[in-house]
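Notebook entry, structure prediction.
Reason for the run: the old model in the group folder had no record of what sequence produced it. Starting over properly, with the input documented here first.
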Amino acid sequence: MATRKEEKERLRAIRREKEATADAELRRRLRIGYAIAGAVVAVVVAGIVVIVLSSGGGGAGGASHINVESGSTNGVTPDGRSGTAPPPVKVADLKTAAKQAGCKLRLNLKDEGHEHIPPGSKTPAYETNPPTSGPHVEPPYQQADGAYSQMPEEIDFVHSLEHGRLEIQYSPKLAEKDQLSLKGLYDTMYAGTLLFPNSKMPYQVAATTWTNLIGCKTYKGAVTEDAIRDFGKATWGRYGGEPAEAFPFAGPTPADPSS
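New structure, fully documented this time:
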């Protein structure tokens, strides 16, 4: 029969075993909790990265104004740069502004057709450069409204013109400060509008709508911007056969730009 002292030792050993088991269980639960917390943080960080990338990158907060309800980005990188605000309009007459800016104004050009072709098709032999009408990619691959840092495929952005869009294009060799000036101009009329570099055209700056073109061999600052704004007011949403409002958009338009 166990003595009183032996019984105390037995009970003490049982207590120590229970405490050790409890400590192990607590450590196990803590490890699981830390793992779950780490996973939650990783998901939150990933979500933040996705939001930043979709907004145009670089913390631009949506400065590219991409409108995916109007079409597809087709993998083209958004331009999330902050533009330089343009000065107020000085020359409101399109022909006068085009002449002062040394730009070639071509209105009511030949309509080269509305044929839909599959994505990746060979570029048609458009009669204007940049193109202003003709065969273009089938829906929903028309280039979405927005500012891009790369040139989209021609068949993609020609389709956008069919829906009343204005497209502002510039040579990728244009000085950075001038690109930012055009970006600032675009910011005042981004709804139903596209901005992107064009390495194929013979101009430093150009703007197009369906069957209309203004091409400027040299960018001359404010007067060139006046010519583009006047061109947008005169032609945006009026050509192509498809109403610009067929795709939802919000914000300033070329017909009613912000000041």
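Summary: The chain has a mean pLDDT of 86.
The old model has been moved to the deprecated folder.
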